[in-house]
Write a structure and sequence with these properties.
The structure is a single chain. Helix content is 55%, strand content 16%. The chain is built from nine helices and twelve strands. Helix 2 packs antiparallel against helix 4. The chain has three domains: 204 residues, no CATH class; 68 residues, Orthogonal Bundle (Helix Hairpins); 147 residues, Histidine kinase-like ATPase, C-terminal domain (Heat Shock Protein 90), CATH 3.30.565.10. With 455 residues, the protein is of the alpha+beta class.
Length: 455
């Protein structure tokens, strides 16, 4: 009983009941209109026939009129038509109507009145549609039609509509029940899938048919959300693993140095040297944490409000000046191509950080005597591409995707200092701006291009 009450309270059952009720109301209104229209048309045809007969016969001469009325009555085998001629004093001159109802004289259109039939005699009045027309010399000619035929027509229509309405109501109820059960089944499947996801089964997805309806499209949107959720959870797990892996080495080194300094140091200088090495290890660990937080901030899009028009040519010159001393120290030629002013819609600091990271990588991985080139391609004053090339070892084709992940370092560059976050940071900044990035072979070296397609 409780389950039945809960089922009746569900939205699907209420909607199905509303649909069934709407179908019943529609059927009732439609049947009512059919009934009214059919009866009205039948009455209109009867009234039209009475008016035409009355006008036609009223123009006849008295003897011809009486003979015509008697002939019409005699020819009416079904006894459905009534007609009579009345003298000015109300006497019946011809026809089968026993008396002239005085209320007819006040109307010029057919009305429903009770008439007493004289042929064959019937003391009870019959309800008939009746009209009276004046004739020459005084008196009236009256035409009427028995309403029994119209009454039978009404009864026939009522029975027919009842026979139609009852199955229609049953079909509406059955249809409502079927729709409710189908909706309940789909909702149960969705609820089970959501419960599985809540239980930790992030691979669970909602069923979607090949030709989805609005509910199916909603399931597709939920599946897309679950895909993003699973990706975010996997990314969070990977981030935790990466943090633990990257911090383990400096923390282990830090502990070992503290232990050795505590055991071996004897003089203030030895204690100071151990403290300095410990501080360097702490700074390295803090730099990893800061880089991770910086990457997360960019991935979350928290800087999107700082976007403005940025002069990319001036930005690239400023970035190159920062790394020019470092490049000269390693014997590397850092060149910035002369480019006309071109701008794009971006966060100045983030775009500066991305360009600086690319130049820093190029300088670090280029051998002495090599060249690092910065190039800007623009069109009609709008920046289209930022290109950084070097003459180093480059990045193999198989690693061009994975180097954009956090803490990943190329197999040929493991000996170079760094945390493996630079290109991941650049990729996050590019995504935030809606730009795209590609890594190609510079033959020799690496060619990294940021395509400012969203400018």
């Amino acid at each position: 009983m409780t389950s039945l009450v809960e089922l009746l309270r569900t939205t699907t059952v209420r909607w199905s009941g509303a649909i069934a009720l709407a179908l019943l109301i529609q059927s009732a209104v439609l049947c009512g209109l059919i009934y009214w229209w059919t009866v009205r048309q039948a009455e209109s045809q009867i009234d039209g026939r009475l008016v035409a007969d009355c006008a036609t016969f009223a123009r006849l001469r008295p003897h011809a009129l009486n003979a015509a009325i008697d002939g019409m009555v005699a020819a009416d085998l079904h006894r459905t038509h009534l007609a009579a001629v009345f003298a000015p004093d109300g006497r019946v001159l011809a026809g089968n109507i026993a008396a002239l109802p005085r209320e007819l004289l006040a109307h010029t259109v057919p009305v429903s009145v009770g008439l007493v039939r004289s042929q064959p005699p019937n003391p009870l009045p019959d309800l008939s549609r009746t009209i009276a027309c004046p004739i020459a010399g005084g008196g009236h000619v009256v035409f009427a039609e028995d309403m029994d035929g119209l009454t039978r027509l009404r009864q026939l229509i009522e029975r027919a509509l009842l026979l139609v309405t009852a199955p229609a109501g049953a079909i509406a109820i059955v249809l409502g029940i079927c729709l409710s059960l189908r909706a309940q089944t789909r909702f149960r499947i969705v609820r089970k899938a959501v419960e599985d996801v809540m239980a930790g089964k992030l691979q669970r997805r909602l069923p979607v048919h090949s030709a989805p309806d609005p509910f199916g499209r909603l399931c597709s949107a939920v599946n897309a959300m679950l895909d993003r959720l699973e990706e975010a959870v996997d990314d969070l797990r990977a981030l935790g693993d990466d943090i633990a892996h990257e911090l383990r080495t400096p923390l282990t080194r830090l502990r070992a140095r503290l232990e050795r300094g505590y055991q071996d140091a004897r003089t203030p200088d030895e204690f100071r040297d151990a403290g300095e090495r410990t501080l360097r290890d702490i700074d390295q660990a803090l730099s990893i944490v800061s880089a991770i937080l910086r990457l997360r901030e960019i991935d979350d899009g928290k800087r999107a409000a700082n976007f403005t028009r940025v002069d990319v040519a001036a930005l690239m010159r400023d970035a190159a000046e920062l790394y020019l001393p470092s490049a000269e120290m390693y014997g590397i030629s850092l060149r910035v191509d002369d480019s006309p002013a071109a701008d794009c819609f971006a966060d100045h600091d983030l775009l500066m950080e991305a360009v600086c990271n690319l130049i820093d990588n190029a300088v670090k991985f280029t051998p002495p005597g090599g060249v690092v080139r910065c190039e800007l391609r623009g069109e009609n004053g709008v920046a289209r591409a930022i290109r950084i090339t070097d003459t180093g070892r480059g990045i193999s084709r198989s690693e061009r995707e994975v180097v954009l992940r956090r803490f990943h370092r190329g197999s040929q560059h493991s000996a170079v200092a760094g945390h493996g976050i630079g290109l991941a940071l650049v990729a996050a900044i590019v995504r935030l701006h809606g730009f795209s990035m590609r890594i190609e072979d510079a033959k020799p070296g690496c060619d990294v291009t940021i395509l400012c397609d969203a400018s």
